[in-house]
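Listing S7. Sequence submitted for prediction.
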Amino acid sequence: MGLDTFSLQNKLALITGGGTGIGLGIAKAFISANAQVIITGRREEVLKKAVEELGDNANYIVNDISDKSNIPELISHIEHRFGVIDILVNNAGVHLKKWAQDTSDNDFENVINTNLLSVFSLTRECARKMIERKQGAIILISSMTALFGMDRVVAYGTSKTALTGLMNNLVTEYSKHHVRINAIAPGWIESDMLHKALDVDKQRKDKIVNRIAMNHFGQPEDIGNTAIFLASNASKYITGVTIPVDGGAKINF
């Protein structure tokens, strides 16, 4: 096995929420592995800037993943314009930091709609094509909150925990068609969103850093490199797993 096993040459990847943060880190990694990348998101100026940074092998489509009615048309448009989708990365999501008692039904439903229901809809539509072709790789971006409890993220944590159940059940149906589905559970990864959340809450930030065995935050490329592995032939016999990329936070005391 050589490095070419990790190559994504001649592969087309769709990455939702690919304009910033972890999604952009995955896009950069896939480009480095010679994939063609399509990123989506709601803000065209952000996507345009990202594609300028990514180069000629990247394109963008403005799309709000929470509007599930547009998903079949999105997939048809991409495959007609750019070619078949070989890799799907379900990265787009929304966060909500509220105590459970302050979380309204509407708050909860909005998070579940974007982080779970839309993920299922997009996965189903992409998989429909992948099943016909008897190949495909699907990656779900989960979270530490799917592995252990945290306060003030009841809706977000529930949505990410549910992705594990979604993955487990889809494995039983997709595997015989050679469509693999796996998840990455990022730890605390450097981003504007992370600092916005933690820089105003020193106690929470200190608690998090003390939990990380490697004693520092991760980088978007750490998630990107793991995504290359799960999207490539290097993991061709791996399906139904969640890989924590967390500097040891899951198991550290």
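Caption to Listing S7: primary sequence and predicted structure tokens for the chain studied. The beta strands are 12-16, 36-41, 58-62, 87-90, 136-141, 179-186, 242-245. The first strand starts at residue 12 and ends at 16.
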